[in-house]
Amino acid sequence: MNIIIVGCGRVGSKLAMLFSGRGDDVAVIDMDPDSFSSLGRNFEGRTIVGVGFDEDVLRGAGVEECDVLVAVTDFDNTNLMISEVGRRLFEVPHVLARLYNPDRENAYLQLGLDYVCGTTLAAEEMYSKIVAGHGNHVDTFGDFEVLRFSLNLSSEGLESIRVSELERDHEVRIIVFERKSTGQSSIPSEDSVLYAGDIILACVRVDRIDRFKHYMVG
């Protein structure tokens, strides 16, 4: 993907390094040239000094060919202007803005803007974990809860367990797992073997979680 990130603060620089690390074409725009020092030595993208909603600056960053434009400056109004210029003038396929003030969410929705509000996300995440009563909570779908955890088999006296056994005995569905020893992730089959310490994403009935908790660490 071709990605332009406007704003090289903590969020912008982290995003830039993530996308650069996976081989995407990344350009970062910021008014302060010193901000680019946070990108580190391994960043392989381009840096442009300038105002993020300036048309010439955006053209210089390659906005006419970019797939994603991300506005993550420290100011909501600036992020809004960048988003509108990218979307309406340059017709960027995906424009995403950072929003600080949750009171403005309705305005962003009415404008049809894609955004991330850190305040709202943090509050909702904390609320969900408190209501769920544990830190493994990811999301809830009706009577089911999605959990992310490190697999604990010590209470069973086992080093490994087949997915089919875990699912059958506890009415759980293993969605995906990451092997502790290799860091590789896979969608399991019934015959897949899970080892202690593997990272698991699973769907469990809410009323079965207490019986399943001894498998969860972290």
How would you describe the overall organization of this protein?
This protein has 218 residues and is α/β, with parallel strands linked by helices. 31% of the residues lie in helices and 30% in strands. The model has no long low-confidence stretch (mean pLDDT 88).
TL;DR of this structure?
This protein has 218 residues and is of the alpha/beta class. The protein is built from 7 helices and 14 strands. It has helices spanning 10-21, 55-61, 76-89, 105-111, 118-132, 163-170, 209-212; strands spanning 2-6, 25-30, 46-49, 68-71, 94-99, 114-117, 137-141, 144-151, 160-162, 172-178, 185-186, 193-195, 199-205, 216-217.
The overall number of domains is: 2
Write down the overall geometry.
Answer: elongated
- The number of helical elements comes to 7
Largest sheet: 6 strands, parallel
Which CATH class of the largest domain is shown?
A: Alpha Beta
Secondary-structure element pattern, one letter each = EHEEHEHEHEHEEEHEEEEHE
Topology overview:
Blueprint: E1 2-6, H1 10-21, E2 25-30, E3 46-49, H2 55-61, E4 68-71, H3 76-89, E5 94-99, H4 105-111, E6 114-117, H5 118-132, E7 137-141, E8 144-151, E9 160-162, H6 163-170, E10 172-178, E11 185-186, E12 193-195, E13 199-205, H7 209-212, E14 216-217
Parallel strand pairs: 1-2, 1-4, 2-3, 4-5, 5-6
Antiparallel strand pairs: 7-8, 8-13, 8-14, 9-12, 10-11, 10-13
